[in-house]
């Protein structure tokens, strides 16, 4: 059953990421391992979905956040964002919880690359109740289209 769930998560993640407007990697504290496939999907002029799929620790981690604030910070190249969502880990253990996010990103004008730093505090609800505030990460993404 676990293998079926993992396969479904991989297929759904692949299909979702093919429609991404930004696609790259996130380094840092993630649901599974220290590296994730990172994607951005626009939901409006100033909001977006920020999703990660990570592999490690005997399973697959999925983070899906709605960045409900996404605004320029002075110069159009710098943006800040804040959001919330859910995370899960499917593997030897099953974890489920809620997660927040606040971050800064810089979009290069000469090349279609975005670099971001974010902080993701979380509250694990299922398998155990636990709060964590050590979720710092670095995002490096290729920009396929404008998310503003």
Q: Tell how many strands the DSSP assignment holds.
A: 10
Query: Radius of gyration, Cα only, in angstroms?
Result: 15 Å
Provide the spatial order of strands within the biggest beta sheet.
Answer: 1-2-3-4-5-6-7-10
Task: Name the average pLDDT.
Answer: 85
One letter per element, helices H and strands E, the order comes to HEEEEEEEEEE
The portion of residues assigned to helices is 10-25%
Q: Quickly give the structural class.
A: mainly beta
Largest sheet: 8 strands, antiparallel, barrel
Shape: globular
Summed up, the helix count is 1
CATH-assigned fold name? Porin
Low-confidence stretches: none
What's the CATH first level?
A: Mainly Beta
Known CATH architecture: Beta Barrel
Strand content: over 45%
Summarize the structure.
This protein has one helix and ten strands, in the order H-E-E-E-E-E-E-E-E-E-E. It has 148 residues and is mainly beta. It has one domain: Porin (Beta Barrel).
